[in-house]
Amino acid sequence: xxxxxxxxxxxxxxxxxxxxxxxxxxxxxxxxxxxxxxxxxxxxxxxxxxxxxxxxxxxxxxxxxxxxxxxxxxxxxxxxxxxxxxxxxxxxxxxxxxxxxxxxxxxxxxxxxxxxxxxxxxxxxxxxxxxxxxxxxxxxxxxxxxxxxxxxxxxxxxxxxxxxxxxxxxxxxxxxxxxxxxxxxxxxxxxxxxxxxxxxxxxxxxxxxxxxxxxxxx
Length: 218
Fold this sequence. Notes:
globular; Alpha-Beta Plaits; seven-stranded mixed beta sheet; alpha+beta
């Protein structure tokens, strides 16, 4: 039997979240709020960063471990983004949004998103053991079917981040910024493991003795 009162409350909570334009899974602001925030920044004529964050190989992960685990990954990333930006000295001017699925947006003051993204990557990869389980974590990956229906080996879950800085790129509209963000995110996804691409500069982060080091190539 279903508890009618709990069901009604759950549906009401979902309606409230949707009314606020938030993603029902993560509670983060959705596309309407994201577009509004970006347009406000563009109209203010002040420089800012926008980071497009994507979970690598999310579909095979979701298929292999199950939808519940996939939702856990998405919620975990949202929690990490929220916690790290809230702890930043510039928290008041930083915005986290959830485009949908495994795509997220981070908006910060100019030249701040790269450091925040590196911290997000470090924290997210710190969750690999609990997300993959002991065996797959020790093996460094898992085998699952790809989009072609072929069995393929996939590495442990990682993040690709494409960052556009409006002081480095000429961006005059929301459409232009969205297009450029997608391009740099695609460039990041071409790299193995977690990576960050900033306005054409590939910044690859490697973990050494619990510290993250960045090597940048023009």
